[in-house]
TrEMBL record:
It comes from Paramecium octaurelia. The keyword Signal applies. GO terms for biological process: proteolysis. It comes from the Eukaryota. GO terms for molecular function: dipeptidyl-peptidase activity; serine-type exopeptidase activity. The keyword Glycoprotein applies. Residues 1-21 form the signal peptide. Keywords: Glycoprotein, Hydrolase, Protease, Signal. This is Serine protease.
Length: 384
């Protein structure tokens, strides 16, 4: 269970990492902008940037009430999903909920249209991401930004922080770094460890597929071999790739995409249907077509697998891949690798090329960011 849950934030993942924040978003809210400090590491730097936040005061009870700071991250923070945990807690606690967008996501782009250059992205790191909510809380006490917030200021209510997935880790780290700013934090699926060789992820997925019968993992291995074969054959290769519209991808990037398309079917609770459908199809070609339809139905998410796309620096509010991989490649990586000496759901060819510890993902991703590899350092010890 732990592996499956923690894997929600793994680095090549089109599955919504924001389990706590899935829509619909119909709760009444007020959306505001906060003047955030650009660089918390330099006290002399007074440069500021805009950070978006949403305030939900419908559950606020001034007698018993508290404040829940919802830490957004890894996505365009449109607010807090109606049925999500922060609201359930807010009802119990009579709390106001404030959702703060993470720098470099959605509308909180510190350098506007220039935010995604490599140089400017270097202002995205875990320390800045922890200092943002800390400074935000401290300023809320000082500034009367909002009616309800003025009330909070007068009453010095209990404050809590909450986050899920990568923001879950932020929530846990925040408690260590700023214990005086909250009375309690909730880290849902808090992925606090950097794991460069996370082979257990695929291993667990493979074990899960065998619950749908012995055949299912074998079909999946055959599908990977099928792709390897098509990519090796110079006559079929081009047409094969083009049938997926992923012309800009290298073979290995394509293999990652393919493996993750499988993995996501299992991870998102569709194992039974998926395995049964494979079972019902008469040939490997038809199975591959079925998988292709799934991959194509996922819109633009394939772009996270292609360096060509990740290099694009054009800021676009709904896109998270470039910023997220920047974070994965510099600090918060959980890199799925091919299990060594074990049965794998990923093409065996992928672990031949990765080098160190089979951390193929690392090589692939880091190449996309060039010099980032030099800066790769686990954050954990630094932070706690
Ligand atoms: C970073 O952003 C600033 C402010 O928008 C811009 O002037 C600068 O050119 C950007 N730097 C790079 C390397 O893109
Ligand atoms: C870069 O991204 C923008 C926004 O998503 C898109 O409009 C543009 O076509 C992309 N550029 C290239 C070269 O793919």
């Amino acid at each position: 269970m732990y592996l499956i849950l923690s894997a929600l934030t793994i680095c090549s993942n089109a599955i919504a990492p924001h389990v706590l924040t899935q829509g619909p978003f119909t709760q009444p809210k007020e959306t505001l902008q906060f003047k955030q400090l650009l660089d918390h590491s330099d006290p002399a730097n007074t440069q500021t940037c805009q950070q978006r936040y949403h305030v939900y005061s419908q559950y606020f009870n001034p007698i018993k009430g508290g404040v829940i700071l919802y830490i957004c991250g890894e996505w365009n923070c449109q607010g807090v999903g109606d049925n999500s945990l922060p609201f359930q807690l807010a009802k119990d606690l009579g709390a106001i909920v404030i959702a703060l967008e993470h720098r470099f996501y959605g509308q909180s782009q510190p350098f506007g249209a220039d935010s995604w250059s490599l140089k400017n992205l270097s202002y995205s790191n875990v320390h800045q991401a922890l200092d943002d909510p800390a400074y935000f809380i401290l300023q809320l006490k000082r500034l009367k930004l909002h009616k309800s917030i003025a009330l909070i200021h007068q009453m010095s209510l209990h404050r809590y922080a909450i986050g899920g997935s990568y923001p879950g880790a932020l929530s846990a780290w925040f408690r260590y770094k700023y214990p005086h700013l909250t009375v309690g934090n909730l880290a849902s699926i808090g992925v606090i460890n950097t794991i460069l060789d996370f082979w257990q992820f695929d291993d667990q997925i493979r074990k899960s597929t065998s619950k749908s019968g012995e055949q299912c993992p074998l079909y999946l291995q055959s599908l990977n071999s099928y792709v390897d074969k098509n990519l090796k054959n110079f006559n079929t290769k081009k047409a094969f790739k083009e049938s997926y519209r992923y012309k800009k991808m290298t073979d290995n990037q394509f293999k990652w995409l393919w493996a993750d398309t499988i993995v996501q079917m299992i991870q998102s609770g569709q194992r039974t249907k998926f395995c049964e459908t494979l079972e019902s199809l008469p040939s490997i070609e038809q199975m591959a077509e079925y998988l292709r339809d799934i991959a194509l139905s996922r819109g633009g998410s394939y772009k996270q697998y292609g360096a060509y796309y990740l290099r694009n620096e054009t800021v676009y509010q709904n896109t998270i891949f470039r910023q997220w991989y920047f974070q994965c490649c510099s600090e918060v990586a959980q890199l799925q690798t091919t299990p060594q000496n074990k049965e794998s759901l990923r093409s065996y060819e992928l672990h031949q090329i990765g080098g160190e510890n089979g951390a193929m993902m690392l090589t692939l991703r880091v190449k996309q960011f060039g010099q980032m590899r030099e800066q790769l350092k686990p954050i954990f010890e630094d932070c706690i």
